[in-house]
Amino acid sequence: MTTKRRPWSKEFTPRGEKPVHIHISNVPPTLRKKFQAKCKRDGRSQRNLMLGWIKNWVEDRRPDEARAEDDLKEAS
């Protein structure tokens, strides 16, 4: 059985400095499994999804604004 490769976004490619690893501790196992399963069903990369959330939060964008921008990018 072959699996589809997850698309890696070049938007989050580390440039210049060494890449940083983020570890999140004490995540409930059921939440982790549900997150992994949903990413797999939707064909989304966990890494890109989490980095997108972090980027939106740092840029102080609301989730609905970010979704609207993503929808515009996909439509063009």
Structural write-up:
The chain is mostly helical. It has a domain at 38-76. It is 53% helix and 0% strand. The protein is built from three helices and no strands. The longest helix has 14 residues, at 29-42. The radius of gyration is 14 Å and the shape is globular. The model has no long low-confidence stretch (mean pLDDT 79).
Give the secondary structure arrangement, pairings included.
Elements: H1 29-42, H2 46-58, H3 63-75
Q: What is the end-to-end distance? A: 34 Å
- Percentage of residues in DSSP E strands: under 5%
Mean pLDDT: 79
Q: Helix coverage percent of residues?
A: 40-55%
Classification by helices and strands: mainly alpha
**Biggest beta sheet attributes:** none
Mass-distribution shape: globular
Summarize it.
By secondary structure, the chain is mostly helical.
Key features of this structure:
mainly alpha, 76 residues, globular, single chain
